[in-house]
TrEMBL record, chains A, B, C:
Belongs to the SAM hydrolase / SAM-dependent halogenase family. It comes from the Bacteria. This is SAM-dependent chlorinase/fluorinase. The keyword Aminoacyl-tRNA synthetase does not apply. SUPFAM superfamilies: Bacterial fluorinating enzyme, C-terminal domain, Bacterial fluorinating enzyme, N-terminal domain. Keywords: S-adenosyl-L-methionine. InterPro entries: SAM_HAT_C, SAM_HAT_N, SAM_OH_AdoTrfase, SAM_OH_AdoTrfase_C_sf, SAM_OH_AdoTrfase_N_sf.
């Protein structure tokens, strides 16, 4: 197993369910900077980029999806810090995942499911909590007392082996994100994500579309368009969104408000 | 038409209707940094300043006002990235606007109305999408696939002419922000903006007040004070706010919750 | 009285009740950078860390608590800018507080109560508004027109004495955060803070627990656990949180939603 060969450039992309009403997000960042205090921080350029901190509390699935939608757009060397951690303080593992381009830090609860599936090569390490955590520490705020110091160690280019040991990827926790259900003449889709605009993002990706098809929502056919604006005011439309997944949308409106979680099907077009 | 003469210092002021619940804001920033990846990013100091991402979805008017209230307070060389873009993916133009102090990037839908009116000289360019966008790209997320690369080009000091061409300002889209309506003995005001504190910000500016006047809300006279704290608990007051516009406020309360969108009039004081 | 001996490293930790819907937070940051414009900003590494801007409007108590929960985790040299300022524009003092590790800037209304109590040595200065503010300025937005320039002066290492004068700490405004109420067989607690997860953070700290005790909520005993996950689904539990204060929590749920502000008591355990 080879070690990382890139030099971290100091971009820390942070996502969590901490919300922005409390002090948690700021304290984690403060703690990372504090860990670098002794060291000449002036020559290390650290940039915190918040992906989001409004993941619904303890919704690990949503965290995993948001990371999937995000990480490929970040520069080489980015360290992703992901904290959606209902098991904080229990025996759940603390993970470090390394690919040739990126590092990922967070709990072992499925948050990194897509990274582990999509990235090859991809190495997993179990963080040795005793080698990182300092007394006094909190069993309820590992973001501050465990994961922040790990990020600092990575920024300082400490050898991973000094605070973590390799673990087989098969032993990690994965979440199940099933493919669309095959039905007689097409697929029944699941809604993976509802965004801020009320667009319903499904699990149907462009690549699955091997022959002409129609999109049906609650048993009514909807048009497949290529931009949100193509719809008529109030029309329910479908389109492939920015991650290549089929979305249900309404022009200048919220599909979620109108439809909630509707039944969505792909039906193969019938020749005449 | 002269070119820019300043060197961008790497401040990117970003405002949008993306919200902070999803990954969109983080991904745009990640993409800007990724575009600089090949290049020696360590010596370029980039600072992202979020103005807000909570503009109501597709509310271009509110975006234009927020930019008006903000841009003059940023340092020379700031690049403003504004994305409220209901027409994403359609034929609407992508704009770059340059003044001797600032650069502005975003869709041509009126978002830059005030900049275009207030800044002189002020040059407009239409971005040549084909010269910026890379395959594969999304027709629904131009923030990531079009505007982020443009910002990166500006940070790298690429010549604007290599990816955009001058366009006459008269051809651009403007929003109409009318002056207060002249009535017999004064003005009838419009509410331009309701802020987080519930203050009602009107379109009446200090400069229009050429003679003594009174402020009337729903046909009752209210006091004109100079600080929020001057009001009595629960009293409706008026004052000129931080942008010189008349506001209706309630001490330690929300004028919007109490009044909604009331009728507001300026009436000239009558001599005795 | 000695002067500061550390060199500010350019971390500005910012908390306020400005919210993230408006432009206020971005404008304050822009103004700080603009003040440094004349100066060679490239060699000064400034990092803005937002603690939170979602303090409820004018809730100075909550601001004081959030600062207490946060500041110790930031690196030496951090400048804390705190703006929850219902008295903006009135005669309330503008403060600068200096400790050997940190600087604090904001209104004199109790926002810095805990810092003043917990830090020794700790010097207070009254900012001379006339020496900082430039015309035109707003009497409603001191974040932009008064406090931002003060932060810039600190970053530029201007001597504090040139724009502020020492003031006795006894003259400052303090908020009252009382200890738990002593009752016959224990303590009656107050709830200091409800966080985003719905955890109820009380005023009972570990150090007060001098003998074995039980936690009672609305006259029912609840278990004292050490992690959130130890509870059974839906069980009300108590635990010492990340700041050493007793919290009431519900596993995978919101204690606040279920309990609101319940009566919480510490009762000494009775021997058998």
């Amino acid at each position: 197993m080879s070690l990382l060969v890139f030099e971290p450039r100091g971009v820390v992309a942070f996502f969590s369910d901490f919300g922005v009403r409390d002090h948690y997000v700021g304290v984690v960042k403060g703690r990372i900077l504090k860990e670098l205090e002794e060291w000449d921080g002036h020559s290390l350029e650290i940039k915190f980029i918040d992906i989001t901190h409004e993941i619904p509390p303890q919704d690990v699935r949503k965290g995993a999806l948001l990371l999937k939608f995000s990480y490929k757009y970040f520069p080489k060397g980015t360290i992703f810090l992901g904290i959606v951690d209902p098991g904080v303080g229990t025996e759940r593992r603390a993970l470090l995942i390394a690919t040739p381009k990126y590092l990922f830090v967070g709990p072992d609860n499925g948050l990194f499911t897509f990274v582990l599936r999509e990235q090859e090569p991809c190495y997993a390490y179990e963080i040795d909590v005793k080698k990182v955590i300092k007394f006094p520490y909190s069993s309820t705020f590992h973001g501050r007392d465990l994961f922040a110091p790990v990020v600092a160690k990575l920024l300082l280019r400490e050898k991973i082996e000094t605070f973590a040991k390799p673990i087989e990827k098969e032993k990690l926790v994965y979440l199940d994100f099933p493919y669309p259900l095959k039905i007689e003449e097409g697929f029944r889709l699941s809604i993976w994500y509802v965004d801020h605009f009320g667009n319903l993002i499904t699990n149907f990706s462009k690549e699955l579309a091997d022959k002409p098809f129609e999109v049906w929502v609650n048993n009514k056919r909807v048009r497949l368009v290529s931009t949100y604006a193509e719809g008529r005011e109030g029309e329910i439309v479908s389109l492939f969104g920015s991650e290549g997944l089929l979305e249900i949308a309404i022009k200048n409106g919220s599909a979620f408000e109108v439809l909630g979680y509707p039944e969505i099907e792909i039906r193969y077009s019938k020749g005449l």
